[in-house]
Amino acid sequence: MPTQTPAATQKQHVELWRKLKLRNSLLSRANPAGAIYVPFIGDGDIADACYSERQIYGADLDPKRVATAQKRLSDAQVIVGDCDDWPFAGRAVEPVSVADFDAYGNPYKGFLSFWRQAPKFFPMVCFFTDGLRLRVQRGDVVWDWATQKAITSESPNQARAQFNFWFKRHALPYVQQIVTPHRIIDTKFYLRRHMVYWGCVIDQ
After folding, report:
1. Three state DSSP letters for 40-90
2. What distance in Å separates the CA atoms of residue 5 and residue 40, rounded to the nearest whole number?
3. Looking at residue 6, what is its pLDDT?
4. I want to staple 203 with a disulfide (CB 3.0 to 4.6 A). Which of 102, 121, 123, 138 is the partner?
5. What are the boundaries of each domain within the chain?
């Protein structure tokens, strides 16, 4: 099923200030001529705080949150769409130099579709809110990147190793594989419990 933001009655962010600090630490590295792509835009609060001076293309499955984001970001193009895919397929979109996948669950399906289909400017900065590490914390499953599904682990040690080295040995190499022959030249990340929040600079 497509990844959605939480229902409109639920709190969308925990420690929003940390998300904003992460974004502000890397945004100056992006090509200033590029647009901003914000899937899972929710109410548009991150976009409003970080990207309001640039052209924004946003999407979300929740029509109420799309309406809220569009009202907040009057010059943006915000649509109802499946952010696990490229929701702007068939629409005219300016080249993107910042993409912000604040997906909570799996941001990488949407990133793969974006990378394959969207026009891009470099250097590019991308952000990910990664909840997949939560899947492997119990020790009975590991994440299979090829199928984008949790599968039964061979042993608790296999799951524990994936959990303990999730970012450097799994998430980061997966994104690098997608963007090759481009290169990830810098990263920043932080952990909150079992969640991973990170950003990277991608260049040619």
Report:
1. CCCCCHHHHHHCCCCCEEEEECCHHHHHHHHHHCCCCEEEECCCCCCCCCC
2. 6
3. 44
4. 123
5. 16-130+168-203, 137-164
First and final CA of the chain: distance in angstroms? Answer: 33
Q: Is 194 exposed, middle or buried (0-12, 13-18, 19+ CB in 10 A)?
A: middle
- What is the tens place of the pLDDT at every residue in 18-67? 999 999 999 999 999 999 999 999 999 999 999 999 999 999 999 999 99
Q: Decide the pairing of beta strands 141-144 and 120-130.
A: unpaired
Nearest to 46 by CA among 113, 99, 124: 99
State the greatest distance between any 2 C-alpha atoms of the chain, in Å, as a whole number: 51
- Rg of the chain over Cα atoms, rounded to whole angstroms, equals 16
User: Percent of the chain beyond pLDDT 90?
Assistant: 86
Closest CA to 115 of 195, 199, 177: 177
Q: Which amino acid is at 139?
A: G
Determine the CATH number of domain 16-130+168-203: 3.40.50.150
Res 11: pLDDT: 56
pLDDT of residue 12: 65
